[in-house]
Write a structure and sequence with these properties.
- With about 400 residues, this protein is an alpha/beta fold.
- It has 14 helices and 16 strands.
- Helix 9 links the parallel strand 12 and strand 13.
- Helix 3 packs across helix 14, helix 4 crosses helix 14 and helix 8 crosses helix 9.
- The longest helix has 21 residues.
- The chain is globular.
Length: about 400
């Protein structure tokens, strides 16, 4: 157990404990690995700690402590704290910012939360570009649990963790090379892996798997793609890229092209775009992979105008963003005939660039096959590799927020 000492006075309001004096809070007892580093970094970077005095005490990742009769609070991973005195003086905005426990789906983010995440991402960009090496997450372990193949997402998360000083435990093909191949349930896998790590980044072949994992785990879960369901961190970096490339998010026109039925990236992006004003979305896809009604209904209910079109060039001439996706062969199963009928129908090439506006950009979640020709790469409006780099900053931001708080 680390030695405890007395901390300056704190104030309490709406479940938030805030030091009145900048510095390390030490009126808590800490038990467990990395606990001193965890609390010092959190309090030093932003002196707040969330608490519910009636039943539990919360750290910035919002995982709850169990209250004991002695007044001490014990977390599942053996952290412990004791509070002293409180006053009600903290603004509610701090409490609102402490509600990000897991990253599961795009609908969990409102406009203010998106702005806050993007602010942290800009800070992470400065760290990546100008710092020789951050130790912000030193002592933390991230487990990447991927049941489907991935290059960009897995490596960007691992790079993000290492650039902030943390360490990584990784499995690239958990579907084949983990105990899942022996019939182990997802819930049992999560209970096991959380014992080795502080946060889990998971990609799974089943829609809804990330939600099941989050319901099981006592540490943060990040959905890195769940089958044809969602890919929220990709959508976050997509919106961040749009803001950087176009300079605004209100009043934009977006063309979503390609596999809209099974494309989890475009589904998540559509949910996020619904947070902004005067957005119009065009859906351009082969009939067999049209956007599903749940997304259309969501957009309509949130006042977002959308339209289906079969004419890519017409749509490209009107849009600020042409967001191209590949037709995903792995989602068609044995119906290769349907895949071949859809593949190659809409291709972004020089003729597409010729009708696009000068300020407009082409985006793609990658990997691409032949749906964007390589000659497009040299055009400054080709933003997809810049888009991929932005994923590093967004994922650095999410790791920082989930492990240390805002």
């Amino acid at each position: 157990m680390a030695p405890s000492a007395t901390c300056p006075a704190h104030s309490f309001s709406s479940g938030v404990l805030v030091s009145k004096k900048q510095g390390y809070c030490s009126n808590y007892e800490y038990i467990g690995k990395n606990s001193i580093l965890y609390m010092r970094q959190s309090i030093h970077s932003k002196p707040h700690l969330s608490v519910e005095m009636s039943s539990s005490c919360l750290l910035p990742n919002d995982k709850k402590f169990k209250r004991e009769e002695s007044g001490r609070f014990l977390l599942k991973n053996r952290f412990q704290c004791r509070s002293l005195d409180f006053e009600r003086t903290v603004p509610n905005v701090v409490e609102r910012k402490l509600t990000l426990n897991d990253v599961i789906e795009a609908q969990q983010f409102d406009r203010d939360t998106l702005s806050s995440i993007f602010e942290v991402a800009r800070e992470m960009e400065s760290i990546e570009q100008y710092s020789a090496g951050s130790e912000m997450l030193k002592g933390y372990l991230m487990a990447t649990l991927f049941y489907e193949p991935s290059t960009r997402t897995r490596l960007s998360f691992e790079s993000a963790m290492k650039r902030l000083g943390g360490e990584v435990l990784t499995t690239e093909n958990a579907r084949e090379f983990s105990s899942a191949s022996k019939g182990e349930t997802l819930e049992d896998t999560i209970r096991t892996v959380e014992g080795y790590s502080d946060i889990i980044v998971m990609r799974h072949f089943e829609s809804g798997a990330a939600r099941r994992a989050a319901a099981t785990a006592s540490i943060p879960i990040i959905n890195a793609g769940d089958g044809p369901g969602q890919h929220p961190t990709q959508a976050l970096l997509d919106v961040y890229t749009i803001e950087r490339e176009i300079g605004k998010l209100d009043g934009i026109t977006v063309g979503l092209v390609g596999d809209l039925a099974y494309g989890r990236t475009v589904r998540s992006l559509a949910y996020l775009l619904a947070n902004y004003k005067d957005v119009k979305i065009y859906f351009v896809s082969p009939d067999v992979v049209k956007m599903k009604d749940d997304i259309k209904d969501y957009l309509t209910s949130n006042g977002v105008e959308w339209e289906e079109s079969a004419d890519l060039l017409d749509v490209a001439s009107k849009c600020d963003i042409v967001y191209q996706t590949r037709i995903q062969r792995e989602r068609f199963g044995e119906r290769i005939d349907l895949y071949e009928a859809a593949r190659g129908k809409y291709i972004v090439d020089q003729s597409t660039l010729d009708v696009m506006q000068k300020h407009a950009v082409v985006m793609h979640p990658l990997p691409r096959l032949d749906e964007i020709t390589v000659d497009v790469d040299k055009d400054p409006r080709a933003a997809y590799f810049r888009q991929a780099k932005n994923g590093l900053y967004i994922r650095m931001a999410l790791l920082k927020i989930l492990l240390l708080g805002w």
